[in-house]
Amino acid sequence: MNLSFSDLRERLRDPALTALLVLETTFIFVMSPLRALGMATPPTVFVTLLFLAITVVVLLSRSKGAIVLVLAAVVLNVTGTLMHLASPSASTDVLRAGGEVLARGALGWVVAVAVFAPGKITHYRIQGAIVLYLNFALIFIALYRLLVEISPGAFKGLPTEPDDPGFVAAITYFSLSTLTTAGFGDIVPIHPFARSLANLEAIIGQLYPATLLARIVTLELVHRRGSRRSDD
């Protein structure tokens, strides 16, 4: 049986999304704390795998705009990384962060379309909703890191060196506690832009679950009504 590219894309999209969810949760909840404890190697390889997974998920989508964004993100990230290795500067940090934010923005675009589109609610759509939620945290992690690289005193209670083994774990912890509005207060934004970003992330963290729940309930009710009409 010969499969067209469209059929192959449909078959691979959901498993790729599942793999991306596994990679994201592993990075956030396992790799970051292990790195802070000195029990894991630098996360370069793992981050590369995560970036590739994002690229694959976006390329498997039908969105040409998202594909253009993720390809631009790859160029920015690779260029920024190579330039940073040769001569570290604020501009190379901006390029790397810009590439990461663009890639995650493209991913969010693709996943949001799939999650909020009309149709039956499946476990893959629930996975997509979780990926989208974690994606918000990861976008803000990239922005917070860039801010610390530009202004080392932007946060109180946070390691000032982004290359510090505990930095990624600390900034991940801060981002998730802000997104969930837990706000333990051991890491405090000092810089005006740090505070602004934290406020924005907290607002998203409040609005997204409510919007998601309302949309999922609506879609499920519409699907059930449609099923009943077809049975009648």
Continuous helix count: 7
How many domains make up the coordinates? 1
Radius of gyration equals 19 Å
**Structural class computed from helices and strand pairing:** mainly alpha
The level of helicity is: over 70%
Unreliably modeled segments: none
Distance between the termini: 36 Å
Name the helix and strand elements from N-terminus to C-terminus, one letter apiece. HHHHHEHEH
Query: Which percent band covers the strand fraction?
Result: under 5%
> What kind of sheet is the major sheet?
2 strands, antiparallel
Strand order of the largest sheet: 1-2
| Count of β-strands | 2
Overall pLDDT score: 83
What is the 3D form?
globular
Summary keywords:
232 residues; mainly alpha; two-stranded antiparallel ribbon; 2% strand; globular
List the helices and strands and how they pair.
Elements: H1 5-36, H2 44-59, H3 64-86, H4 90-116, H5 123-150, E1 155-156, H6 167-179, E2 188-189, H7 192-231
Antiparallel strand pairs: 1-2
Helix pairs in contact: 1-2, 1-5, 1-6, 2-3, 2-4, 3-4, 4-5, 5-6, 5-7
Briefly, what is this?
Helix content is 77%, strand content 2%. With 232 residues, the chain is an all-alpha fold. It has a two-stranded antiparallel ribbon.
Structure report:
- There is one protein chain.
- By secondary structure, this protein is an all-alpha fold.
- It has one domain.
- The chain is 77% helix and 2% strand.
- It is built from 7 helices and 2 strands.
- The chain has helices at residues 5-36, 44-59, 64-86, 90-116, 123-150, 167-179, 192-231, and strands at residues 155-156, 188-189.
- The protein has a two-stranded antiparallel sheet.
- The protein is globular.
- It starts with a helix and ends with a helix.
- The model has no long low-confidence stretch (mean pLDDT 83).
